[in-house]
């Protein structure tokens, strides 16, 4: 099969196995070139196949020498269709990690379900014994509740009043005004059910009941805050309510983990191009302006640089530095006053005509393509490849 990108709105419906492997291997190379970290050795990553979860898994194995089990929900190849990028990433990660001598096992299925939790516990017991780090990095538009079978959908909407601002179609470069209607109470609740902390605590409960938590265990989940520009749609919107819930869950979990001398943290990460963030209105425009500013200031990072910095902070041996809410702040460079001021200046008066000059749409598009294994110079996209790899 000759595989080319097929972009529909903010998703790409194809993925390239060789390109995804190149993406994974670049991240592995970055970690191998970074100083190694004495940290976790037995790691479970939930949401391990793309974005922050994949980067965490790579940094855990190649940076800390950890054996890993990854859970994700990806599509295998089928008649005439490529697998999803996360599928190919997982295959590539397992191959490289195993070649380097680490245990790397993966489970593909719905992490929200009791069945996948039980299957994972069995595998953890068999392959890892107890775990000393659990990274929770699931991002999903829906969740079927394991007890009731009811399916909830999350929405990306403002709360209280309509919100209008500029957005960009990253494919065409057209900047336009978008108005989003406020969420209903039910939509807010549903978004919290999908993206809040309940499933994270169900994972910890299941691991504890199966006696799979090691002494000194750490668990991590990821959040975002962001600037005033995206506040109405992000932090003060429906997803922000879910993140408040996730952050509150960290405090509850830390209490529960006291008997293991363990700790639950939320790390507030930087805005980056991932399959999840590209679906949020307004955010891709903000990201393309942010990238330009951060690159100019030599502060630009991707998921892998963030994961490496995070583990460096967590396992430095010193007290883990947090903000007054107990969160680790990996967004400290994004939120620096000089960075935000420059982004704000670029934002005011942004139009289709000046967006390419004020923002880094090229980098945005390349990052987006690379999420699906496209845009790598070392890959010949004219070659016939087998999409069905396991
Ligand atoms: P992503 O879309 O790249 O990754 C999502 C992962 O979740 C994938 O591995 C996917 O397979 C898995 N997943 C989805 N539904 C699942 C299910 N039902 N069962 C099992 N696995 C499932 O997303 P991301 O951007 O890396 O987001 C991860 C976390 O990081 C989220 O909490 C997100 O809010 C947070 N975060 C993202 C950004 C950003 O800019 N992208 C910034 C800060 C924080």
TrEMBL record:
General function of this protein: Involved in the fatty acid synthesis (FAS II). Catalyzes the reduction of a carbon-carbon double bond in an enoyl moiety that is covalently linked to a coenzyme A (CoA).
Active site location: 234 (proton donor)
Keyword Lipid metabolism: yes
Pathway membership, UniProt: Lipid metabolism; fatty acid biosynthesis
Pfam families (UniProt xref): Eno-Rase_FAD_bd, Eno-Rase_NADH_b, Enoyl_reductase
Domain Enoyl reductase FAD binding: start-end pairs: 322-385
Enzyme category, top tier: oxidoreductase
InterPro entries: Eno_Rdtase_FAD-bd_dom, Enoyl-CoA_Rdtase_cat_dom, FabV-like_NADH_b, Trans-2-enoyl-CoA_reductase
Record's keyword terms, sorted: Fatty acid biosynthesis, Fatty acid metabolism, Lipid biosynthesis, Lipid metabolism, NAD, Oxidoreductase
Domain Trans-2-enoyl-CoA reductase catalytic: 81-313
Residues annotated as domain Trans-2-enoyl-CoA reductase-like NAD(P)H binding: 2-79
Homology family: Belongs to the TER reductase family.
UniProt protein name: Trans-2-enoyl-CoA reductase [NADH]
Gene name of this polypeptide: fabV
EC number: 1.3.1.44
Residues reported in the UniProt entry to bind substrate: 224
GO MF assignments: enoyl-[acyl-carrier-protein] reductase (NADH) activity; NAD binding; trans-2-enoyl-CoA reductase (NADH) activity
Binding locations of NAD(+): 47-52, 73-74, 110-111, 138-139, 243, 272-274
UniProt keyword NAD present: yes
UniProt record, GO biological process: fatty acid biosynthetic process
Self-association and partners: Monomer.
Swiss-Prot/TrEMBL catalytic activity: a 2,3-saturated acyl-CoA + NAD(+) = a (2E)-enoyl-CoA + NADH + H(+)
Site (Plays an important role in discriminating NADH against NADPH) residue list: 74
């Amino acid at each position: 099969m000759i595989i080319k990108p097929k972009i529909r709105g903010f998703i790409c419906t194809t993925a390239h196995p060789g390109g995804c492997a190149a993406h994974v291997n670049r991240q592995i190379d970055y970690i191998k070139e970074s100083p190694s970290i004495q940290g976790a050795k037995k790691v479970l990553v939930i949401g391990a196949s793309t974005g922050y979860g994949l980067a965490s898994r790579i940094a855990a194995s190649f940076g800390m020498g950890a054996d890993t089990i990854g859970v994700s929900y990806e599509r295998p190849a089928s008649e005439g269709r490529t697998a999803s990028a996360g599928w190919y990433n997982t295959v590539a990660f397992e191959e490289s990690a195993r070649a380097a001598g680490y245990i790397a096992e993966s489970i593909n299925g719905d992490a929200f379900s009791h069945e996948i939790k039980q299957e994972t516990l069995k595998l953890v017991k068999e392959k890892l014994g107890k775990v000393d780090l659990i990274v929770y990095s699931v991002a999903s538009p829906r969740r079927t509740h394991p007890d009731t079978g009811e399916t909830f959908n999350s929405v990306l909407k403002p709360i209280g009043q309509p919100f209008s601002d500029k957005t960009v179609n990253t494919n065409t470069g057209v900047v336009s005004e978008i108005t989003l209607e406020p969420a209903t109470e039910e939509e807010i609740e549903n978004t919290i059910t999908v993206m809040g902390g309940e499933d994270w605590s169900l994972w910890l409960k299941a691991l504890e009941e199966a006696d799979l938590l090691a002494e000194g265990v750490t668990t991590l989940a990821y959040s975002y805050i962001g600037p005033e520009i995206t506040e109405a749609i992000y932090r003060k919107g429906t997803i922000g309510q879910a993140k408040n819930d996730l952050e509150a869950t960290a405090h509850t979990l830390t209490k529960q983990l006291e008997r293991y001398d363990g700790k639950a943290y939320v790390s507030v990460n930087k805005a980056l191009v991932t399959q999840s963030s590209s679906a949020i209105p307004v955010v891709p425009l903000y990201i393309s302006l942010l990238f330009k500013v951060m690159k100019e200031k030599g502060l630009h990072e991707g998921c892998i640089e963030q994961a490496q910095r995070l583990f460096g902070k967590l396992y430095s041996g010193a007290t883990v530095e947090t903000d007054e809410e107990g969160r680790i702040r990996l967004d400290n460079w994004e939120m620096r006053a000089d960075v935000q001021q420059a982004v704000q200046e670029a934002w005011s008066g942004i139009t289709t005509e000046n967006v390419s000059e004020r923002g880094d749409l090229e980098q945005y598009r390349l990052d987006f393509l690379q999420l699906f294994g496209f845009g790598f110079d070392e890959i010949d996209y004219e070659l016939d490849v087998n999409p069905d790899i396991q």
